[in-house]
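ok so dumb question maybe but i'm new to this and my supervisor (M.) told me to 'just get the structure for ABC transporter substrate-binding protein' and walked off. so i did the thing. is this what she meant?? sequence i used:
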Amino acid sequence: MKRSLIIAGVATLLLSGCGADPEGGSGSATIDYWLWDAAQQPQYQQCADAFHKANPQYTVKITQYGWDDYWNTLTTAFVSGTAPDVFTSHLSRYPDLASQGQLLPITDLVTRDKVDLSAYQDGLADLWVTRDGQRYGLPKDFDTVAVIYNTDKLKEAGIKPEEMSELTWNPQDGGTYEKVIARLTVDRNGKRGDEPGFDKNHVATYGLGLNTSGAGFGQTEWSMYTMSNGWQYADRNPWPSRFNYADPKFKETIKWLTSLIDKGYVPSMDIISSGVGQIDTYGAGKYAMVTEGSWNTKTYWALKGVKSALAPTPIGPTGKRASLFNGLADNISAGTDNPDAAWAWVKFLASPACQQDIVAKQAVIFPAIKSATVEAEKAFADTGIDVKPFTMHVKDGTTHLAPISDHWADITTIMTETMDSIFSFKSDINALDPANDKINALFQ
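this is what came out, is it supposed to look like this??
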């Protein structure tokens, strides 16, 4: 009850502040707002409508782009002076934008309006503060990683659903996790990956799908394995001074994962980069299971002719599971012509009025506000989706904060080339040594 009263108080505070102009004015304004996820656009349109109803002087115009087009278009917009007033931002992107002076800090506004940062999931609010102490965002959601599998293919393989909740892995033989992957893999002649005569060069269904090589982030590709093997991205997070991509634990994990490609259990880079995405390939029955982020759950369940279920990420050599703990927030462009309106909108997006009353009930993502997360779990359950494999990471303390670093764009460039080469077997695992040296040289 006490938590409910606190959250309700925050909602009242944020709603009452949305229509207020910090300078005492009350001029009307249209807020240009960009986001990249088409699945989330309807729920934020509802938030925009509610915001306008509470603040008639402000109107929100939403523009949606795909992920790649989003960042390219945003970069061009900053250069040309046509950036949106507010845009959805990512932890790996905002540090560079802040250092370039493209973002409006909201530190004083948060203090002035007494925004209760404790209402959010622990640690999320801290991620949006740069090394100089300036805040650039309020948490709007969080995400973790789990396994999504095709229930029919699991049954055909003779694997029981309860087995999926206790899988283990290790970089030596892959553990029970690799055994399941092998069993779920089927060649064109109907032979499974764990049966004699399996043809790894003519696979009809891969046991485990793969989205990309993961570059330097690997959120849904390899992070759950590397971190459950005791590896960390860098010497500290946020704002590291040295990265650990040459660490033996990272190397042995990636070597194991790429061995699954060689065995025919996981698709090759040629297939991965063919232009057909992981979701569509899974929907076509060519992947029996995938490791995926919580934000895409509803999309998988909407696939026609496919029945899916969730399982937690496997337990690694540390004796624990692992998942990156990532989250989004909204940034205000430094060049906005409507800073008062932009702040009002950002504050509303981060409030229970948007996150709990609207977003949580759509069962698309997990809102950042703690009580809203509970509402989202209920909403997912009402649609027949048990999301505990995602939320258990938060409850069990097996989350690891996504890396927040200077020079991330450069790190991504270096690691994309390196990891693509390793996953394509054009380079061996030791290519990570010079790549890591190049990355650490950025911090000298």
